[in-house]
Amino acid sequence: MSVLVTGATGYIAQHIITDLLEQNYKVIGTVRSESKGDNLVKLFNSNNFTYEVVPDISVEGAFDKVLEKNAKDIKYVLHTASPVVFEVEDLLRDIVDPAVYGTKGILNSIKKYGSKTVERVVITSSVAAIEHPDGISRDGKTITEKDWCPLTLEDAKLNSVNAYFVSKTLAERAAWEFYEENKKSGDIIFKLATVNPAYVFGPQTFDTSITGQLNFSCEIVNKVLQLKPTDKVNTNITGRFIDVRDVSKAHLLAFQKENTIEKRLVVSSELFGDQEMVNILNEKFPTLRGKIPPVGKSDELAANNLQGLIDMSETRKILGFEYISLDKSVYDTAAQILKAEGKI
């Protein structure tokens, strides 16, 4: 039996595939082109990894051929494919539509060709589907796994951050609506779960992925690494983070465990900001001292207020493992970047 992983070239997806292969699963990854697929075949170097080309996930029936061809083999589907881009021409077309249509598309293809064979589906969502871009609820109540981002399609037209939050919200809502409707009618047998990560840090699966521009979250660490000693450091709290290796582990447990069925698994560890990362880099990399800004203090009051308004303890209980610390995640991310640049 195989696991289908959509968006196989993605930062999170590559970690998931690595973990799946280490646990002896057969993996089918979807990619946008043959060249991308061939590159992954070389990188993973495993007979248990194959790929299928899906050029555009937002096209109707995009996943039909993949499911039709492999339906008898695919037991689990992990849908990670979704855009994380902010500089686009059209906010709805380039951010919202691919996320929503891609999610609806994979579920419809499963219904058509894997309704009696696919047993578990995991959708990669985000904390963006749960909270406001400000990181707190507007009415001061504590945010939990049961909450939803309040932004609307009209809000998505205002800026790319709003568009991203709306894209994840509408895509996940569409998944749950599809699931409830088709579970009731008996048209599917699979059980659904979502994984909703915060900002994701941690090393790339392969050192060759270290290029000029990293994925959105890791670029935050990279930009701090590029600061000069005299640069002013933002002392505000940016948000909460989770290490990519924990995100991957959560995806596997989401289809392996029974207590994850029909759950939203919101994986987030510690609060972070630029100053926290500067402090960690100064401590962990003595050669950087004097080349980046010095150790300083963050806005502790803001951190305490933000921490008190967020409770994702149910997810921790369900998953049952300790998350990687901010110290280790920032260190591992930075070490890989510095090594690629020949600085360590």
From TrEMBL:
It comes from Henningerozyma blattae (strain ATCC 34711 / CBS 6284 / DSM 70876 / NBRC 10599 / NRRL Y-10934 / UCD 77-7). Signal peptide: none annotated. GO terms for molecular function: oxidoreductase activity, acting on the CH-OH group of donors, NAD or NADP as acceptor. Keywords: Oxidoreductase. Pfam families: Epimerase. This is NAD-dependent epimerase/dehydratase domain-containing protein. InterPro entries: Epimerase_deHydtase, NAD(P)-bd_dom_sf, NAD(P)_dehydrat-like. Belongs to the NAD(P)-dependent epimerase/dehydratase family. Dihydroflavonol-4-reductase subfamily. Residues 3-262 form the NAD-dependent epimerase/dehydratase domain. It comes from the Eukaryota.
